[in-house]
Design goal:
Blueprint (H helix, E strand, L loop, with lengths): L2 E9 L3 H13 L4 E4 L6 H10 L4 E6 L27 H10 L4 H23 L4 E5 L7 H9 L6 E4 L12 H8 L2 H19 L10 E3 L9 H13 L7 E6 L16 H7 L2 H11 L1 H10 L2 H4 L3
Parallel strand pairs: 1-2, 1-7, 2-3, 3-4, 4-5, 6-7
Helix pairs in contact: 1-10, 5-7
Length: about 300
């Protein structure tokens, strides 16, 4: 039977964003969210997960934004003088590839911080098993995925996101074609390539993962039409039946009271206050989207009836 999960990232980044995600769960069809272990509203987010126990969650590993959980002395290559992460997805990759003299220490530091993040979530929520993904897909970097694969039993990692997404176009083409010629297409191509490599790295007998993801190519522009086109593509290629499919949204729109979190970081603030997040939130709570998700989860849809 096909397993369809509607998922939202960035739980705990701020109280306002967290509230919006909870509302999308209560009023819409959101099944799961990813909690940021170093999010400003982590404790608040934990409280919400304890209150709404039918909202499942993953650990959203983060090495690229906010303040690290480990002390600066333990992870000097990952943070600045104030203990905030200083790398992007690509700069961390470049550091690993070209600074071979730092590679061993870098891996030790990454493992130290990841351990702190997973431990914080497990201790706060008393969870025995862990579902993992990451901020900006950094866990798909081969050297980080290798760390997770080696330690999946120790950390009781049950599932991990593998963002393999089919290429598709969405109607109306004259509007959505712009999205194809954006950063999203680069992310789509890169993550699909890394997904293939990742599937060779992980122990498939010990860990589960989505067979297909929907939400990279149209990240920030997710709509009913986009999801319909993606699912249609999977069905036509006979990839839908008996697959695990993750549909990813970013409905966590921050409130004005959250603004101090991103003081002096206008680019990042723009991401969390983007009107696109409000649009994706409205999609999740719309009757049309809820009915469509209910349909594709049904056995009748899988049999083509």
């Amino acid at each position: 039977m096909t397993d369809v999960i509607v998922h939202a990232d960035d739980f705990g980044i701020s109280a306002g964003a967290t509230d919006r995600i909870v509302e999308a769960h209560l009023k819409g069809c959101l099944d799961r969210t990813s909690i940021l272990p170093n999010g400003k509203a982590f404790d608040y987010a934990v409280g919400q997960l304890k209150k709404y126990t039918d909202l499942s969650y993953a650990v959203h590993l983060n090495l690229v934004e906010g303040k690290a959980l480990s002390s600066r002395k333990k992870i000097p290559d990952l943070v600045n003088g104030r203990g905030f992460f200083k790398h992007t997805f690509f700069s961390l990759w470049i550091l690993y590839l070209f600074c071979k003299n730092k590679r061993e220490k870098l891996l030790e530091q990454i493992e130290t911080e990841i351990y702190q993040q997973i431990s914080r979530v497990r201790n706060a929520l008393n969870c025995e098993k862990v579902i993992l993904d990451s901020h900006q897909y950094l866990h798909m970097l081969p050297f980080i995925l290798d760390i997770l694969n080696r330690l999946l039993k120790e950390w009781a990692i049950e599932s991990i996101r593998i963002p393999c997404e089919p290429f598709f176009l969405a109607r109306p083409f004259h509007i959505n074609i712009r999205n194809i010629f954006s950063l999203n297409i680069i992310k789509h191509l890169l993550l699909n390539r890394l997904s293939k490599k990742g599937l060779r790295l992980i122990d498939r007998e010990s860990i589960s993962y989505p067979d297909y993801s929907i939400g990279v190519l149209f990240s920030g522009k997710m709509s009913l039409g986009v999801v319909q086109e993606a699912v249609s593509r999977l069905v036509k290629r006979k990839l839908f039946s008996d697959s695990r499919i993750e549909i990813l949204f970013h409905p966590g729109l921050a409130d004005s009271i959250d603004a101090p979190i991103w003081e002096g970081m206008s680019k990042r603030a723009g991401f969390y206050f983007s009107n696109n997040r409000l649009k994706e939130f409205k999609v999740l709570i719309s009757p049309e989207f809820k009915n469509y998700i209910r349909m594709i989860k049904s056995a009748q849809y899988e049999r083509g009836k």
